[in-house]
Amino acid sequence: MILDEWKRLYSNTKTNFREVAVKGFWDMYDPEGYSLWFCNYNYNDENTVSFVTLNKVGGFLQWMDLARKICVWKDVGDWV
After folding, report:
1. pTM over 0.90
2. Which of 4, 38, 61, 75 is most buried when burial is the number of CB atoms within 10 A of its CB?
3. Residues in domain EF-1-gamma C-terminal (predicted)?
4. Number of helices (H), then strands (E), in the chain
5. Would you say 61 and 70 are in contact if contact means Cβ atoms under 8 Å apart?
6. Most distant CA pair in the chain: distance in Å?
7. Closest C-alpha to 33, from 61, 63, 6, 1
């Protein structure tokens, strides 16, 4: 899987997201070379102001500095 190729597909998909970007991910995904990690935030009632929520995510990714460049995050509910 060439992650940059999929990230371009992800960011450029404007319609039919599931059919294009999600299917494209699974078509390109290499389980031998990549792993998937899902995080669940348990305090969703605190996420009332968008910029505060984005700051929390950004801070979390800063602590994971080596993974920051290759992380992609999306509300999983949108993928179901």
Report:
1. no
2. 61
3. 1-80
4. 5, 0
5. no
6. 38
7. 1
